[in-house]
Fold this protein.
Amino acid sequence: MTAEPSPMSVDVAYWKKTIHLSQLINVYFQYRDAESLSPIRKVLVIGVTNKLEAEFFKCRGFDVRTFDIDPVFEPDELGSCHDLSRFPDQSFDLVVVSHVLEHLPVSLMDQALAEIARVGRNALIYLPVAGRHLAVSLNIGSRLTFAMRLDLFQYWHRPTGEHRKYRFGEH
């Protein structure tokens, strides 16, 4: 049985009013990537939270619509990204989906991606990196460089693909 999409089971009031450094960094990359796709005018932002992305794009002169499953975030349009049937084909120059798709059941992923591709001429999709990371770089003189990246995953907390699992400090 497929789980139905639903709002996040975290403190949405906290997410609505809080800005994290990672969100500012994400907005920078979203804007940089959007600029590389010119000409972009109409943007659909899926996954609103504190509206940082949408407001930034508006300040830069884009015509922005917001879309979210949770009414607490006060999106322009309410719904799940696996059903964008309210929008005509190619109705946006760009669809921005940042840190949203990982909240969908795997069984709805293909449908969500097809809908995003249908309503937008371009799409920017950003997914979080799972686990914790440790990076070490050692430069000895000008000729010898040693670099190592170690991903520390919690293998005992594997997602089921149908039900979300959140750890402390994650959404």
